[in-house]
Design a protein that fits this description.
The protein is an alpha/beta fold. It has a single domain, classed as Metallo-dependent phosphatases (Purple Acid Phosphatase, chain A, domain 2). The strands form four sheets. Strands 6-7-10-11-13-12 form a six-stranded mixed beta sheet, covered by helices on one side. It has a five-stranded mixed beta sheet with strand order 5-4-1-14-15, covered by helices on one side. Helix 2 crosses helix 3 and helix 4 runs parallel beside helix 6. The longest helix is centred in the N-terminal third of the chain and has 17 residues. The termini are far apart.
Length: 261
């Protein structure tokens, strides 16, 4: 059994065309820059794990654009929805990348969960999603597991963002604890690098491929940090090694308001 290598890219906020701008950043260009950086930094062959807010506002054209970029670049990828996404629209337009909620890679299992809820930016697990989570964990019995979701189950110490963390996270935690083999959780949504513990489970939140939010802020604010991504290595002994990379020599301006997060 060899090491499983993943690259997490999150919060792309693509538009239906290549000129979508968020916070002064053209999101298509920044996503391509992150892809290229991951390749030059030795992560180009990794499975891509896209953890939500792939579109800026659920546009079908955004998912078609993403499908084309991934296919043209020969990428293997899995995805899950965020609060700016629409699951059925994703399924219909990411035609070469069907939704795969449970993966077995080497000796590892990966569980992809939907923490989004209709008509709101916050996180919540529906009863149906909790049932799917329980079934997925049963399928992965005996394997070390990495869990991926969009929203954070823990506070990141930014007042406005912490209001949006998963409101019923304790129900999922009880399942993960009972499984006994969950080694880490990775999330998006917070547009920043934040590592923490959910009781005894490590939680790794990752920067966006476009704009970043100011850390430790009371109200919404953008940071001047550049786009980034996370690399993840799942080792055969059940340990997880991970780190975040930010783009070098990337100029962005943070003078455009963002709403709806």
């Amino acid at each position: 059994m060899s090491t499983v290598r993943l690259t997490q890219i999150t919060d792309l906020h693509l538009g239906a065309t290549k000129d979508e701008i968020l916070g002064g950043v053209t999101t298509y260009d920044s996503f391509l820059s992150v892809l290229r950086a991951s390749e030059t930094q030795g992560h180009g062959d990794n499975l891509l794990l896209l953890t939500g807010d792939l579109a800026s506002d659920s546009q079908p054209g955004a998912y078609r654009l993403l499908n084309k970029v991934l296919d043209d670049n020969g990428k293997k990828a899995v995805w899950l929805p965020g609060n700016h996404d629409h699951f059925k629209t994703m399924q219909d337009n990411l035609r070469d990348y069907p939704f795969t909620p449970v993966l077995i890679l080497g000796g590892w299992g990966i569980l992809l969960l939907d923490s989004s809820k209709p008509d709101g930016p916050g996180g919540h697990f529906s009863d149906e999603e909790l049932a799917r989570a329980e079934a997925g964990l049963a399928q992965l019995a005996g394997k070390p597991v990495l869990v991926a979701m969009h929203h954070s189950p823990v506070a990141v110490n930014s007042t406005w963002l912490d209001r949006q963390r998963i409101d019923n996270q304790q129900k999922l935690y009880a399942m993960l604890l009972a499984h006994g083999q969950v080694k880490a959780v990775i999330t998006g949504h917070v547009h920043q690098h934040h590592d923490s513990l959910w009781h005894d489970i490590p939680v790794y939140s990752s920067p966006s491929s476009c704009v970043q939010f100011e850390q430790y802020s009371h109200d919404f604010a953008l940071s001047d940090n550049p786009p980034g991504y996370r690399w993840i290595e799942l080792h055969e002994d059940g340990s997880v090694q991970t780190g975040v990379e930010f783009l070098q020599d990337f100029t962005q301006r943070c003078d455009v308001d963002c709403v709806g997060y």
